[in-house]
Each structure stands twice: as C-alpha cells, then as structure tokens.
Amino acid sequence: MKNKTTSALIGAALLMATSAVGPGFLTQTTVFTKSLGASFGFVILISILIDIGVQLNIWRIIAVSKKRAQDIANSVFPGLGAFISLLIIIGGLAFNIGNVGGAGLGLEALFGIEVKIGAILSSLLAIGVFANRQAGKAMDIFAQIMGFIMIIAIIYISMVSNPPVAEAALRTVAPLKIDFMAIITLVGGTVGGYITFAGGHRLIDAGISGKEALPQVSSSAVMGISAASLVRVFLFLASLGVISQGLFIDDGNPTSSVFKLSAGNFGYRLFGLVMFAASVTSVIGSAYTSVSFIKSFSPTIAKNENWIIMAFIVVSTIFFVAVGQPVNLLIIAGALNGFILPISLSVMLIAAYKPSIVGTYQQPLLLTMVGLVIVLLMTFMSIKVFANMF
After folding, report:
1. CATH level 3 topology of 2-388
2. DSSP conformational letter for 362
3. How far apart are CA 261 and CA 256, in angstroms?
4. Which of 150, 180, 245, 356 is the most buried (most CB within 10 A)?
5. C-alpha closest to that of 347 among 95, 66, 62, 90
6. Global confidence as pTM
7. Domain range list for the chain
8. How far from the centroid of its chain's Cα atoms is residue 243's Cα?
9. What is the pLDDT of residues 82-132, one digit of tens each?
C-alpha cells in the first residue's frame, strides 16, 4: 500500500509537471530567452516563487476538502464551478490542439514522419493509455518515463551549448529588463488553467486526501513545480548559450533551432524526442484534467470518463489536422491561462475559510497571505498586459 501511495504521489507531481512541459512551454522558454537574454532568469525565478505559492494553496485545499476544484467552487457560490469548468475546458482544448501538433512535430524531427500523420499516431498512443483497464497506473508510469527522458535530454543540450552561467546567475537577481507578459505567460503555462489541478485531481482519484495526507500532498506539489522548473532552467541555459554565440534562432521553430545549433543533427533528433515526450504527456494531462472538471456534474460522465477523455483527444486531433497550430497560439494560450489563474486561486482561498468545505482545517496564515499577494500581482500584470494590447 505504501508503494502504491508513493507511486501515486510521484505520478501526481509528474502529471502536473509533464502537463506543464508541453510544446507551448518549450516554445515560450526559447522565445522569451531570445527577447530578454540573461534577464529571462529573473522572470523564471519570479514565476517559480509564484508557482509554488499557487500550487501549495490549491493542492492543500483540494486534499483537505476531498473535493475537486469545480465542486469546491460550487460550494463557494452555486454555479461558479460550472463557469470555472467552462474556462478550464476551453483553455485545455486550446492547449491540447497545440500539444497534438507538438507531438507531430516531434515525430517529424525524430523519424521524418509527416506532421499530421505523427499527430494522429501520437493521439492513438495517448488514447491507448486511457484504453488500459488500469488507466491511472498507466498514466503515472508513462508520465514518469517521459519526464525522465525530457530532463536528461535537456540537461545534455544545456551543457553542450556552453551558456554564460555567471551572467545568467547575475541577471536572475539583477535583471536589465522586466517583462510582465513573460511572467504572466510562464505562470499561466506552468500553473494556469487546468495545469495546477492535474496533480491535485489525480491525488483525489488515488484516494490521497484529508488533513493527515497534507505533508505528502505538499511534498508532491513542490516536487511537481521543481521538475517543471528544472526543465525550464536548463532549456533557458541552452537557449542562452546559442544566443550568446550570436547564432540565429528560427522564429518558426525556435526550440528546434536551439537543439540543432547546439548539437547538430543529433541535437535535432534529440529535439524530436523531447518535443514528442513533452507533447504526448501534455495531451494526456490536458485531456484527463479537462474531463475531471465535468465528471462530478453527471454520473453518466463519471461512469464513462475514459471514453470521454479519448473523445477529447480525438476532437483536439481533428482541430489540429484541420487548421494547424502556429507558434503564436501557444504563447497566447499560456497568457490566457495566466488571466484565469487569479479567478481560480481567489475561489480556493475563499474556500479555505469555509468550515462547510474544509471542516476544522486551518489554512496557515502565511500561505494565505502569499496566495493573496499572487492574486493581486497576477491581476495587476494581467490588466497591464491587456491594456497594452489595445
């Protein structure tokens, strides 16, 4: 039983991390490194601190209430859960179209398979995970394997690109430029929208909940952010290494350029492997979490959860095959998730102080204050970014 619990905790952390580390995550990191240079390290640092504050608040409240986010929201205000679910599903679908396309791009780089054919094959693999009778266990194992592959490959590329580590460290604490759009996009792409709920809902499904499980839940939450942040930091260093040498990064496929310029044709193949692993795990995480937001609304949905998840993947694939997936949409989707975050986090903070939801649990005051600061900060930056769009 202990091994099963440990596996579920690691699986939840990596489901969250691999849901975050999709093609949008890879693209955003490279694009912003190109525009901000070493100062992007500061953006990463701020986003990590925000991510941890968000994740700890949300996962602990989900665990202690033993409810999914939409049910918590409905308990705060009737109908609010349906509204948040709608936002989550729209964002999840937008991301999943990009995830499917990213998987196709990965297989194209790895094996020379045409992108749309690769996207279809990747979707079939993701569907296979949910066709398994033990879908939860299969999802945990798949996330762990793919997460390990991504981390090792990106660490290797960051080493061979020879980045200016000293400059990156300096600008992480003393940036030359601060970009609110970059912060919102990074936070949105890591814990915005459906992503932060992926692991929390997985723990509920695995039966890990209640006040007695909070130490484990908190550790799993931080583990998920740490894994995603590790990938982000090393990809930033790899991109910075290429930029510092004055090499040209192709705007059409920026992350591919970084890998290829760092390690030649082998690097390009390695990019294919990383992009495929990142994308197919994000397809799984997005579909699983999006459907988890509606399954408590109907016994029929709950009973046929895996079939609906598979249908979600099929719809995402059809959208991609029909309209394609430009790089810009991946950036915009991350930003939109950043706009959703203050709403969902505010709801969870209110829920933390309603005994009808959390019973006798008392949320640590420091954690609440951190959550409030994040809500205010993300709201301010969202308004500022939105105003600059017009």
Report:
1. Amino acid/polyamine transporter I (1.20.1740)
2. -
3. 9
4. 150
5. 62
6. 0.86
7. 2-388
8. 26
9. 988 888 888 788 788 888 988 998 999 999 999 999 999 999 999 998 988
